Automatic annotation (TrEMBL):
Protein name: Beta sliding clamp
Domain DNA polymerase III beta sliding clamp central: 132-238
Record GO terms (molecular function): 3'-5' exonuclease activity; DNA binding; DNA-directed DNA polymerase activity
Domain of life: Bacteria
Any one cellular-component term (Gene Ontology): cytoplasm
UniProt keyword annotations, A-Z: Cytoplasm, DNA replication, DNA-binding, DNA-directed DNA polymerase, Nucleotidyltransferase, Transferase
Presence of the UniProt keyword DNA-binding in the record: yes
Classification via InterPro entries: DNA_clamp_sf, DNA_polIII_beta, DNA_polIII_beta_cen, DNA_polIII_beta_N
SMART domains, per the entry: POL3Bc (SM00480)
Gene3D superfamilies xref list: DNA Polymerase III, subunit A, domain 2
Organism listed in the record: Campylobacter hominis (strain ATCC BAA-381 / DSM 21671 / CCUG 45161 / LMG 19568 / NCTC 13146 / CH001A)
Any GO BP: DNA strand elongation involved in DNA replication
Family: Belongs to the beta sliding clamp family.
Length: 356
């Protein structure tokens, strides 16, 4: 194989694919990226078996068609060490040479035929949804997805396709986020759970026109420049309908910017706070175990019948506030010992308070 490619093009593709590599076992073929130069197209694939990306580019000169593999991290380091000019990738024996003018790097290769096959769209269901909307919507519920939970289904987001709407749901057991999209497809009564890592990578990819496919085991996204796949989480997501339909005794609209201002004033001192909502003001007080103290009161035009007090982790409320665009949001509340709900537009987050 011999191909000539601009540094910027190669660096961009390798940086896209590197997060998909096997990081722990460097003897594995999946610690390498698969490089192919065929029919005037440079294609680079990476996968850790659970998630994978194939990226291709036609802005290259293919002199000799063929295949190569290389450790993704070492290849990226080699690319960064070169000037912003054309780079030659060439195989000889069991090595890949990365060359530019008088600079040359030699990287060992594995047998490219050992590289895992990617799943195809054949016999998959097509998910007829705007990929940019899906990516942005998943981002809004991303903070509530758990990490390393022994209940694997909580380490991902549920896509619950109903007849008239699509519910995107995530929970870490201390909060639950729901974002609703109108269902403009013919698909209904389908549920899939996408892993957190896959959702994180989707944010970087879903900027072009993308076609989405899925079955019981895998989620695929295909565009002119890439093919992405992720294995789905096989599990039963918690029942969430009753929780989001809870009836609350008190409801008040709160100003987003003033809430952010109050939380930031306390955030430098502690991770948790007590919030008191009363007529014409909101009081923020730190909760700390080391006797340090922070307090700020912000004036508002709020009018409520009964004063509301609750304690909360700062991050939970900030995660919600950073994912809404409106100037105000709805706060629904029963008492200081039960879950409360914050909502704006199509985003709703139900949060368990800290109980002293």
């Amino acid at each position: 194989m011999k191909v000539i490619v601009k540094k910027g093009v190669l660096e961009s593709i390798v940086s896209y694919t590197n997060p998909y590599l096997e990081k722990k076992d460097l003897s594995s073929i999946t610690s390498h990226i698969l490089i192919s130069a065929m029919d005037g197209v440079l294609s680079i694939k990476a996968t850790d078996h659970e998630i994978g990306l194939s990226y291709k580019n036609r802005n290259v000169t293919v002199i000799d068609e063929g295949y190569a593999t290389a450790n993704g991290s070492k290849l990226m380091n080699a690319i960064k060490g070169l000037e912003d000019d054309e780079i030659t990738l060439e195989t000889a024996g069991n090595s890949l040479f990365v060359k530019q003018k008088r600079s040359k790097y030699k990287l060992p290769m594995y047998n490219y035929t050992d590289f895992p096959e990617f799943p195809t769209i054949e016999n998959k269901n097509r998910f007829e949804i705007n990929s940019i909307i899906l990516g942005r919507s998943l981002k809004k519920i991303f903070p509530s997805i758990d990490t390393n939970n022994p209940k694997y289904e909580l380490n991902g987001a549920l896509i619950d396709i109903k007849e008239k709407q699509i519910n995107l749901v995530s929970t870490d057991t201390k909060r639950l986020s729901l974002y609703t999209i109108p269902n403009q497809t013919s698909t209904a009564n389908e549920k899939i759970i996408i892993p957190k890592k896959a959702i994180n990578e989707i944010q970087k990819l879903f900027s072009d026109k993308v076609e989405i496919f899925y079955d019981a085991n895998v989620f695929l996204a295909v565009s002119e420049s890439f093919e992405f796949f992720s294995k789905l989480i096989n599990g039963k997501f918690p029942m969430y309908d009753k929780l989001v339909d809870t009836v609350y005794s008190q409801s008040v609209m709160l100003p987003r910017d003033k809430m952010v201002e109050g939380i930031k004033a306390i955030n430098s001192m502690c991770d948790s706070m007590k919030i008191t909502i009363k007529n014409n003001s909101i009081l923020f007080e730190s909760i700390s175990e080391d006797n340090s103290e922070a307090k700020t009161e912000i004036e508002t035009s709020i009018q409520i019948e009964n004063q509301i007090e609750f304690s909360i982790r700062n991050k939970f409320l900030m995660d919600f506030l950073s994912n809404i665009e409106e100037n105000s949001f709805k706060f629904d509340f029963n008492n200081e010992k039960t879950a409360f709900c914050v909502s704006s537009g199509d985003l709703k987050t139900i949060i368990m308070p800290i109980i002293a």
